[in-house]
Specification:
Protein name: HTH merR-type domain-containing protein
Low-confidence stretches: 75-79
Mean pLDDT: 86
Organism: Phytohabitans aurantiacus
Strand content: 25-35%
Structural class: alpha+beta
């Protein structure tokens, strides 16, 4: 992860790791393609803002479409 002007940016793998075990690098790539997650190229590597990725992930987690997502509630997992 890198920090630029107070915002944290990461690669697909870093973003996926920061957002939890049920988020994959492929999901982050799809968010960039389909949901408007910005990408900034530096040295041939795409970096995405963690705060915007987290907002997209939260919207997806609360959506009723697609596969059920795990929600961490006080150390326990609920389906």
């Amino acid at each position: 992860m890198i920090t630029v002007d107070g915002r944290r940016y990461g690669t697909r793998d870093e973003i996926a790791q920061a957002l939890g075990p049920d988020v994959t690098a492929d999901m982050v790539r799809n968010w960039a393609r389909r949901d408007g997650l910005p990408s900034h190229l530096a040295g041939g590597v795409a970096y995405h803002p963690l705060d915007e990725a987290a907002a997209i992930e939260a919207r997806k987690r609360l959506a009723t479409r697609g596969r059920p997502r795990r929600v961490d509630v006080g150390g326990t997992l609920a389906a």
